[in-house]
Design a protein that fits this description.
One of its GO terms (biological process) is transsulfuration. The chain contains 16 helices and twelve strands. It is of the alpha/beta class. The strands form two sheets. The chain has a seven-stranded mixed beta sheet with strand order 1-7-6-5-4-2-3, with helices on both faces. Strands 8-9-12-11-10 form a five-stranded mixed beta sheet. Bound molecules: pyridoxal-5'-phosphate.
């Protein structure tokens, strides 16, 4: 697809044409475990990779390939490979490049599952994991300069939407000969393109914004062909393959990616601004607010500030317990990035594994609420929050 085609058009058209069949205008869901050949020489040529084609469903699938190509083109990458979940994309990528004795530098605020890989599984393999304070660029640079195989970043982070300067970290990584990987789930390719900022590999939990309808799990990795093919090989053997039905649902969801994300950017900004005016709200975390400590970096590297924000309320868990059930237009659930607004306390969602003391050390108050803005009409979202705040029992206000 031509370079100057815009993102909204790419989201709709990219990656599909090659997989169409029977004159259908939509990509088919190819539910076939294997692919048959009458010509033994042709079968061999496909099997050894000399000729395009499919052999076995654990390796490749036409529906999955359309999904991979759509994400690849949106991220401006050379190559892409898909996985059963976002965590499979992360674990397979790390598993491909990290060996016993290696060192990886990352941040303290990565997604909970990623953090578990860093604190539980990689140390078991004698891999040295260094986790720096998120947003402390000097500390990350100093650790990277000591030498590391991988620099792993996520920005914005979960749930306090901290921002790391991607271009600066890519330079630090390059200087140290490290592979720089960014989890771009929160930003989506609509708001942020880390490859263009100099990183080596970008991955997504497609389960979130890419799919956008909370009905399919998936993960995807994009970057240079040489690197992604290594991870593809690890994945085809280890088996965390994306299911064709999920690929279809994700593809269909992605057609509206730009529309959805633009609306979510707008809604999140307006909700964040509204929350700043509410007495019982202590802090609002959103990279689009000028009060955000890294608003300038976000402005520089993002074309939209995303659909994710969080806020803390006076009265902590007690207030959360009364407030969230009152919301009519929000799911109280663990996922994010869907067309519906989704809310949840961090102590139940992203940081459920931590003790209250650990959460406090990470700057996550017990009364922190994560808010994933949906694509509803903004008047209704704010109206819903207003009525929920107004219905809080009087003793909440007198006790805080
Ligand atoms: C959800 C999420 C993941 C994990 O994705 P799954 O599809 O649930 O495995 C990884 N990174 C981020 C930032 C996420 O939000």
């Amino acid at each position: 697809m031509k370079k100057d085609i815009r993102m909204g058009t790419k989201a709709i058209w990219a990656g599909e044409k090659e997989q169409l069949a029977f004159g259908a205008t939509q990509v088919p869901v190819v539910h076939s475990v294997s692919y048959g050949y009458e010509d033994m020489d042709e079968w061999y040529e496909v099997a050894v990779g000399n000729k395009k084609g499919h052999i076995y469903g654990r390796n490749t699938n036409p529906t999955v390939e359309a999904f991979e190509n759509k994400v690849r083109i949106l991220e401006g990458a050379e190559h892409a490979t898909a996985f059963s979940t976002g965590m499979a994309a992360i674990s397979n990528t790390l598993g491909t490049f990290l060996f016993p004795g290696d060192r990886i530098v990352s941040i303290k605020d990565t997604y909970g599952g990623t953090n578990k890989i860093f604190t539980e599984f990689l140390p078991q393999l004698n891999i040295d994991v260094v986790l720096c304070d998120t947003g402390d660029h000097e500390a990350i640079e100093a650790e990277v300069a000591k030498g590391c195989k991988v620099l792993y970043l996520e920005t914005p982070t979960n749930p306090t939407v901290k921002i790391t300067d991607i271009a600066r970290m890519a330079r630090a990584g390059k200087k140290a000969g490290a592979l720089v990987i960014v989890d771009n789930t929160f930003a989506t390719p609509i708001n942020q393109n880390p490859l263009a900022l100099g990183v080596d590999l970008v991955l997504h939990s497609a389960t979130k914004f890419l799919g956008g309808h909370a009905d399919a799990l998936g993960g995807v990795l994009v970057g240079a062909k040489e690197l992604v093919e290594k991870v593809y090989h690890y994945r085809e053997i280890n088996g965390a393959t994306m299911d064709p039905m999920s690929a279809y649902l994700l593809l269909r969801g992605m057609k509206t990616l730009k529309l959805r994300v633009e609306r979510q950017n707008e809604n999140a900004m307006k909700v964040a601004e509204y929350l700043q005016s509410v007495d019982i709200v202590d802090d609002v975390f959103y990279p689009g607010l000028e009060t955000h400590p890294h608003h300038d970096i976000a402005k520089e590297q993002m074309s939209g500030f995303g659909g994710m924000l969080s806020f803390s309320v006076k009265g902590g868990v007690d207030t959360v317990r009364h407030l969230l059930p009152k919301l009519e237009f929000a799911n109280r659930a663990a996922n994010l990035g869907s067309v519906e607004t989704i809310v949840g306390p961090s102590r139940t969602t992203s940081h459920v594994e931590c003790t209250p003391e650990e959460r406090a050390a990470m700057g996550i108050p017990e009364g922190l609420i994560r808010y994933s803005a949906g694509i509803e009409d903004i008047e209704d979202l704010i109206g819903d929050l207003e009525q929920a705040f107004q219905s809080l029992p009087k003793e909440i206000f007198t006790s805080v």
